[in-house]
Amino acid sequence: MKTAVVTGGAKGIGRAIALKFAKNGVNVVVNYLSTDPKELVAEIEGLGVGALAVKADVSDFAQAEELINQAKEKFGSVDYLVNNAGITRDGLILKMKEDDFDAVVNTNLKGAFNTIRHASGIMLKQKSGAIVNIASVVGLTGNAGQANYSASKAGLVGLTKSVAKELGSRGITANCVAPGFIETDMTDTLPEAVKKSILDSVSLRRYGKPEEVADLVYFIANCAYMTGQVVAIDGGMS
Ligand code: NAP
User: Fold this and answer.
1) How many CB atoms lie within 10 A of CB 55?
2) pLDDT tens, 161-185?
3) 72 neighbors 29 (Cβ within 8 angstroms)
4) I need a labelling partner for 51 at 20 to 30 A (CA). Which of 17, 28, 41, 224 fits?
5) Is the separation of the CB atoms in 184 and 209 below 8 Å?
């Protein structure tokens, strides 16, 4: 049985990804920071696969190492790594606080480096593995008020493409998924006027669902001859 590690897996898009892998017979390691994943773990186990909840701040190198080590110890392999954990701290560049830049880059970009850094050794020994990093359409287009977030997501694209080149010869893939506006807690806090203006730029005229992103992540994670790619799932925004 294969094993997936999903960072920030307790809610939103990460939760949908965790359930998608579980429904397809994959053990799931649900990483979380503040959302209690107890019920999700029970739901995953109810699907007949193993589940392990690991509290870890992915922006911390040592905690990310512990997360990957616990996954390997419990299930014996790390076959899929989905770097989904992410935060926003929006603000215009003129007024953006240094802390807000650092926090976003440390979680969204360095967090992915930290887990890949520790999982890659395991995947190299296995001579197999699939890494999927959750970027964002604004990492490709930029977005006013999100210089920190857009930079972190654009950085993920470069990280992914480099990792794909380094690990490809051992049968390991690395790809990015770039969602547009998906209905989760992250987007729920936006003012109605902003939501409305975003919707006007979406060809399909609706927001995406976490499950729709999860379907794509699972598909890409199992595309053995695809690596170093960025696939947008944004209803036609970009
Ligand atoms: P969300 O509901 O706010 O979930 C964010 C997740 O990240 C939570 O599970 C949270 O864990 C986790 N997290 C945050 N900081 C962490 C840290 N330091 N260590 C470990 N976990 C951490 O947001 P979402 O919309 O599902 O976002 C998931 C991913 O999709 C993010 O990378 C986001 O940038 C990306 N994305 C979202 C959208 C969108 O429209 N929603 C669009 C493009 C990209 P806890 O709850 O346990 O603290």
Assistant:
1) 15
2) 999 999 999 999 999 999 999 999 9
3) no
4) 224
5) no
**What is the tens place of the pLDDT at every residue in 50-67?**
999 999 999 999 999 999
Run of H or E including 29: strand 27-32
In 3D space, the residue among 125, 140, 127 whose CA is nearest the CA of residue 178 turns out to be 140
Residue type, 116: I
217 neighbors 175 (Cβ within 8 angstroms) = no
Query: Which one, of 186, 228, 233, 218, lies nearest residue 82 by Cα?
Result: 218
Tokens 């790594």 belong to residue: 81
Q: Is 62 exposed, middle or buried (0-12, 13-18, 19+ CB in 10 A)?
A: exposed
**Helix extents (H) in the chain:** 12-23, 38-46, 61-75, 98-105, 111-126, 138-141, 147-167, 185-188, 192-200, 210-221
**Secondary structure (H, E, C), 129-183:** EEEEEECCCHHHHCCCCEHHHHHHHHHHHHHHHHHHHHHHHHCEEEEEEEECCEC
11 lines ligand 1 (CB under 6 A): yes
Residue whose entry in the numeric block shows the structure tokens 């794909």:
164
Identified catalytic residue from 149, 207, 218, 225? 149
**63 torsion bin: left (phi>0), alpha (psi -120 to 50), beta (else):** alpha
User: Is 149 designated active site?
Assistant: yes
> In the β-sheet with 129-134, what is the strand arrangement from edge to edge?
51-55, 27-32, 3-6, 80-83, 129-134, 172-179, 230-233
Q: Evaluate: CB of 35 within 6 angstroms of ligand 1.
A: yes
Does ligand 1 lie within 6 Å of residue 182's CB atom?
yes
Judge if pTM exceeds 0.85: yes
